[in-house]
Structure formats: structure tokens, C-alpha cells
Design goal:
single chain; Alpha-Beta Plaits; 2 domains; 27% strand; binds 4-diphosphocytidyl-2-C-methyl-D-erythritol; binds adenosine-5'-triphosphate; GHMP_kinase_C_dom; 4-diphosphocytidyl-2-C-methyl-D-erythritol kinase
């Protein structure tokens, strides 16, 4: 069945955090094997895709972190649209507009989620009707975090992170994010981890059973003691001042404090939404970070927003 053509589609796509990130020794292709538990949180970028009457692909970026995002062919949203266009012989182009709320190079998969949003938007705009499994395949070519951003919720990531399977999680968790000035390069953080630990002693990556059972229980206190990020030491080595941010959150009563993915964003688990508000206020009043955000998780992955009702 054909879908009716649309002039424009907007897709909302979430940031991710890693509740557990176990990193093995580098593979021969340079990537590290992972056992990670992702969670999608309610901090979103919106990508609007609008039809063009030629085959060009363009991007504009607006919002909180727009100045930090490239608008040339290195933009992950452009790369996603181009890959889909090439792989499926699409003879149409697209204008992309990204409303950016997720910190750039912050360890929250902002670029990856824009790529995931673009795949969903172009799939609809160009009437490709690709199944989720086909989109997952294209997503994996774009980056290790992109397949998770398509599915969202809570999921296990294996391989280099691109092989995702859903994980059962009960209830809603309340997170606070301390967004640092400047970003950290993901390859630099992996390289720092390799520098810090003797490779012959590195165990294969493993998912923590305590983390999986904490998620099933829905208890924030159980989750707090099961959180883990093997990249944290490397991020702290590159940005030692993050240790003070983590400690400040704990001193204010956060159940747990952790570097988000490759950093430098720090995340804090609160007992409930009220404590999250209090913690966010304290962090915002400290001079320890550029910006503070609060968000719940888990939430779904990249989703088409309903079109606004025209009058
Ligand atoms: C840190 C995480 O965000 C945790 O989910 C991801 O592992 C990073 O995922 P990503 O940003 O999508 O990374 P990619 O774009 O696939 O790879 C960027 C670079 O990060 C390093 N990289 C990434 C993933 C991985 N499993 N091992 C790596 O060593 C490699 O140097 C790679 O060239
Ligand atoms: N659409 C995009 N949004 C943000 N950054 C982008 C985008 N496209 C390309 N980039 C480039 O990618 C780099 C990494 O940005 P991103 O925000 O994805 O990092 P990250 O959140 O640390 O990634 P991850 O958590 O997946 O490792 C940026 O420094 C920027 O130059």
C-alpha cells in the first residue's frame, strides 16, 4: 500500500545514556567490543525534513548548541540522508532542519540521534516504506550508537554497540545532567582508556546481572549501586575537573553520579522527581557546569511527530 506524499515531516529523537558500559580490548578494526546497557532519556533533538525539487541535501541547525554543529557534509544528518539516497536509488533531495537541545560532543549521542531521526524522516518523506530492520542496517553503517537511537527505551548493546536488543525495565528513573563547557572527542576517550590500562589484562566485556535486576525491580536505589562506566576513568583523566562535579552531586544527595558515555556530561540519579528538581537547582547555582538539564527515562526512540493542525 502506498503512503500519501508529504511536503514535510518532523521526527523527535532522544539522547542516550549508558547505565552500564563495559569495554573490551580494541579489535583489529580499532573499535572496542562493548557490553552496554543504553537508556533513552527525554532530552530531544527535532529534525524536520522538507522535500526539494532536485536531488540536493542541505542542513540548517537551530537551538541551544547550534553553533557547535557543522553544516557541511560531515553533519551526521546529511550523511544519513545521503546514505539512504544512495543505497535505495532515491531521485529526490531534502532540506533538513535540526532543532538542537542535546549537548554536542557531550557523550549523549546527539549526532547519532540526529542521524536516526533523519533516517525515519526520509523513509517517510521519500515513501520508501523500509522496515525497522532495514533502517537498523543503514543506521549501523553510520555509527555505533545510531541503531539504539532508532529503538530507544532500554536496550543491551553488543558488538561495537550497534547490535541492540531490548531490556526489560520497570518504571521511570529521574536523571539530572550537568553539561560541561566544551566537548570530549569519543576516539580520544577510547584511546585514553587504552593508554591507562594494560591491554593483556582486559577482560571481555560483560553485562552486570545486578544492573539487569535493578532495572527489572524499578528501584532507583538498586540501580544507583549497579551503574558503571569503563570510560569514566579516561574521561576524568582528560578532564580532571569533572571529579568535583560528580562529588558535588553526591554531596547534594544524588543516589549516584556517573560520566555519561565518553563524557564530559555528568549524570546524576535522583530518588524521585522532587529530588531531581532540588539537585538541578543546586547544580545550576554552582559554577561547576555550563548548563543543567533534567529528564526522565526510558523513552522511545526516533518518532514522527503528528503534523500541526492547520486552520
Ligand atoms: C561512547 C559511546 O557513546 C557509548 O555508547 C559509543 O561507544 C560511541 O559511539 P559513536 O559515537 O556512535 O561512535 P562511532 O561513530 O561508531 O565511532 C567513533 C570512534 O569511537 C571509537 N569507538 C567507538 C565505538 C566503539 N565500540 N569502540 C570505539 O573504539 C573509535 O575510535 C571510532 O572511530
Ligand atoms: N548532527 C550533529 N549533531 C552534533 N554533532 C555533530 C552532528 N553532526 C556531526 N557532528 C560532529 O560530531 C561530533 C560529536 O558530536 P556528538 O554530539 O554526536 O557527540 P557525542 O554525544 O559525544 O557522541 P557519542 O555519545 O555518540 O559518542 C561533534 O563534535 C560534531 O563536530
Amino acid at each position: 500500500m502506498r503512503v500519501p506524499p508529504l511536503a514535510s515531516v518532523t521526527v523527535r529523537s532522544p539522547a542516550k545514556i549508558n547505565l552500564g558500559l563495559s569495554v573490551g580490548a580494541p579489535r583489529s578494526d580499532g573499535f572496542h567490543p562493548l557490553a552496554t546497557v543504553y537508556q533513552a532519556v527525554a532530552l530531544y533533538d527535532d529534525v524536520t525534513a522538507t522535500v526539494r525539487d532536485d536531488t540536493d541535501i542541505t542542513v540548517e541547525v537551530v537551538g541551544d548548541f547550534a553553533v557547535d554543529v557543522p553544516t557541511d557534509d560531515s553533519n551526521l544528518a546529511i550523511r544519513a540522508a545521503k546514505l539512504l539516497q544512495t543505497e535505495y536509488d532515491v531521485e529526490e533531495g531534502v532540506d533538513l532542519s535540526i532543532r538542537k537541545t542535546i549537548p554536542v560532543a557531550g557523550g549523549m549521542a546527539g549526532g547519532s540521534t540526529d542521524a536516526a531521526a533523519t533516517l525515519v524522516a526520509c523513509n517517510r518523506l521519500w515513501g520508501l516504506q523500509l522496515a525497522q530492520s532495514e533502517l537498523q542496517h543503514v543506521a549501523a553503517e553510520l555509527g555505533s550508537d545510531v541503531p539504539f537511537c532508532l529503538v530507544g527505551h532500554t536496550a543491551l548493546g553488543r558488538g561495537r554497540g550497534e547490535q541492540v536488543t531490548e531490556v526489560m525495565s520497570r518504571g521511570t528513573f529521574h536523571w539530572v545532567f550537568a553539561i560541561a563547557d566544551g566537548g570530549l572527542s569519543t576516539p580520544a576517550v577510547y584511546a585514553e582508556l587504552d593508554r591507562l590500562r594494560p591491554l593483556r589484562r582486559v577482560e571481555p566485556p560483560e553485562v552486570s546481572p545486578a544492573l539487569l535486576s535493578a532495572l527489572l525491580s524499578g528501584q532507583p536505589a538498586a540501580l544507583a549501586v549497579a551503574l558503571n562506566n569503563d570510560l569514566q576513568a579516561a574521561a576524568l583523566s582528560l578532564r580532571p575537573e569533572l571529579a568535583a562535579t560528580l562529588q558535588f552531586g553526591l554531596d547534594q544527595g544524588a543516589l549516584a553520579a556517573l560520566v555519561s558515555g565518553s563524557g564530559p556530561t555528568c549524570l546524576f540519579l535522583a530518588a524521585d522527581s522532587r529530588q531531581a528538581v532540588d539537585l538541578a537547582v543546586e547544580l545550576a547555582e554552582s559554577s561547576l557546569c555550563r548548563m543543567v538539564r533534567q529528564a526522565e527515562g526510558p523513552v522511545p526512540g526516533a518518532r514522527i511527530l503528528p503534523a500541526p493542525i492547520s486552520r
